[in-house]
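Following the same procedure, backbone shapes were mapped to integers, yielding the entry below.
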Amino acid sequence: DLSAHSGEFQRNGYILLKDVISDEFMAYLKDFHRRSLNGTVAEHGKWRIGGKKHQFVFDFSSDAVIEEFRAGIAVLTGMRPEKIAISERHLKQYEADAPDYPAPHKDRGASKISVGLPVHLGPGTSVCVMPGLDRTPNPGERAIYMTEQDNPNLANIYQSKDALLLNEELGDMIVFLGSTIFHERVRPRGTAVLYIKINDENLDP
């Protein structure tokens, strides 16, 4: 029952939900990951980010699972279930040479809320959110990245008080305001995460 966590999400704009993924669904995620690695699932070339990660369009196992996901996320975020549109549903597989500390970014406007479910975690990796920095929503069609001009301390941003590592584990779920809060994954090499991006404005459904 995610209603118990809705207040925390509304206050902070992010939340780490511990051990909320069923064994059955985790097995499904791991199988999808396995199939993406052996080429059974086609890579979504349009969304590949060279030198960082591959991305595979995710399919839910059934309509019932979709509706359960929609209902739970609606309770957590305060969105009306019938208004929720999924703008992205990608298993992200980070490359072996992906940079350890990329520039933080905000997602595009259609990715108002990001839901992350780790499937395989590389050593020392974590999502990092920066809720104390500028939280102006990004309305654009592309992600925006932090620059030295915006933040002269960019080279040391992950060592600053603004960087909050969530240190998620398998079975956890991360939810955050993706187009509002600067964020990034640190030390991502070899990591696989399912990201489902949603909005309630019917943007890029």
Notes: Residues 107 and 179 are 4 Å apart (CA to CA). Residues 23-37 form the longest helix (15 residues).
